[in-house]
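One thing: could you explain this record?
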Amino acid sequence: MGVKFSIITVCFNSKQTIEETLDSVIKQTYNNYEHIIIDGKSKDGTLDIINRYMSESKKVILLSEEDTGIYNAMNKGIDLASGDLVVFLNSDDTFEPDALELINKYYNDKIDLIYGNVSWQEKFKGKIYEKELNLAPNMSQSNKKNNTHIMSKYHLEKIQNAHNATFVKTAIIKQNLFDEQLKICSDYKFFLNMYIQKRKVLHIPYRITNMKMGGISTTQLELGLEEHVKCEIDMLKYSYIDINKRKLEIKKTELIKRITKSLLPPKMYVRFRYLNKGWSLK
């Protein structure tokens, strides 16, 4: 029978993207899963799309009601989860067709978290550019039998970019719900807890999820940074990040993006923004 997966998708007015997300789940080569969708009372036709999929698949579970924020919605999904492993797939993300099959192949019940690689995808002038992130930690010591590690600061750095390709034991995540007081970084706080609890983690070198890159404002980035540092100081009594230096880097990066996008011809911008930085045309 293998592993049963609880895939949780939180959405609100996601009509433009959620069909592709649902398609990527229903087309999995491994089908022992439930797909829990937590909708915040969408008004744009999102629910019509979900209901159509529910008529085609008994694996879809829908809860549509108002929530107090994304982490409140995610906790509702955790409460409904009945699988062995939980993963959060955003309403504009997609799985690779063999994502669940690969996780099932490499998972064993001594592993607390298992994750793979993520492909960042961004659209420019009607074309999609992508970059796969190899999120394997550079570590010398491992369990030779199954290559598992105790959760480390290296995993924290990598998993931040792979939350939607990270599968967590359901029993563990039910005991470590997301902090609903945080607006952006409660998932980082969760993984920080996994680090403190010395959970066992395994990385597999395969692309699991495709993640669409959105336009996050500088204000949101700075709020996320502040929450990130607060979590580390509260829980570790120190932070890995120089917050003032990082805020300057955020402002500089956003300024360069705006200037180059407005001044460079499209072909030069593609070379500067994507091709010279390891991205490729999908």
Summary: The CA atoms of residues 55 and 181 lie 36 Å apart. DSSP finds ten helices and eleven strands in the chain. Residues 141-145 have pLDDT under 50 and may be disordered.
